[in-house]
Amino acid sequence: MMQITRAFLTFRRIPAHIVIATAGASILLTVGMFLLGQPLYMMALFALLPWLPVLLFESLWKVDHYHWVAVFAVIVVLQLGHLMEHVVQVAVLSLTNAPLVCPPPVDTAENAQRAIQAGLRDPGSAPTGMSVSTIVKPNAQGTALIGADGAPVTTPLACGIFGQLDLEIVHLIWEVAGWMLILMLVLRYPRNIWLWIALAFASVHTVEHLFICYTFFFDNHFIYEGTRQLWGTVADGNLVTAVPLGTEPAMLNFYDVAGKNGIAARGGLIGTFFPDLNPLLPTRPYLHFYYNLIVTVPLAIAFAGELRRVSDRYLRRAMPQLTTKEAARITPALHPVRFRAGETIVRQGEPASRFYIITRGEVEVIAEQPDGGQEVITRLGQGEFFGEVGLLRDGVRHATVRAQTAVELLCMERSTFDTLISRAEVQQDIEHIARLRDPSVRPA
Prior knowledge:
With 444 residues, the protein is of the alpha+beta class. Helices cover 47% and strands 17% of the residues.
């Protein structure tokens, strides 16, 4: 279990020097954004950017080799990333009691003008169009809350890392897509009870967002008298602060009054019909954190269960006689190697220590003649293997194998090969192919 987990967590397709260079670029960009005074979401964005192509190519390799379990892994990673957004949000709320203003105000011309009129901003400064990074807490009157030191009380935003995406349509698309992906996994692994549990919780979470989006997009009749918070934005370099500048009367719709809290959050549908129960309900940020937590935990457990049975599809293609358990045991010991066209992979007469399975490209098997000539015995392609003759016979290569095209191989050491042929049926099948290539090979 630990070996295959390590195989999933390490880069198999991307060379180590590329991973190191990517990590270096990510660190430099993050430090650069910090020195330039960029907000947290910009630092996080630039930290992630160099990793996107690396993770894409690595994910494609894993999907190619491990199929559904690799798809499962990608879904789990995405869900974990989404959960971390909620973790950051509730952490800020818990530690700072920050006001919940999501998505955050933007330094628009309107907000900048309010700040200028309030004497908080240079009249000649133009709006930046950036989202605010910090916010001054509003008091009951909607103006700046003043602390004991006589200064306005400021806090970071409680909108996660990428609060700019804290939009109802984004939530809906994400949750519906996540529900469909988990349903797809349930259809692929119907006996995994943890997937059914994750699907049940994801269904409840999706219904919440369907209700919220219905009130947001369709129940938009302005029938309630209320107030709207006014913000002014003050730019200090690349950092923007939102300052509360009072409220103004406004007509509100059901979404503004209660619909944005959904069904089960405090102030939502249940709380409206059962006022005595309302104080016991979690606020929306905490409720959706709980939703994501109870979806992510069983999903991760379900993935761990399937990970124990994962095997490389090229191993199964080359060795169809292996049982699921045998293939899963061998898979972590396979190591990808690559050769350019024309490169020699093994040379006749050298010690035989590895067994190879072709996953991409073609090789040619060559017999070296005593007079220096060469004879191409055969060509092998995807899903075929070589190197078994020397391992079965006398530990010496009986032919040269050269890459006819750029090739990618899975190789295993002799000790793993010995494990591979420990079952009689597997050994007989490999010996049969070895005898076709070299009649001098005899059954062990």
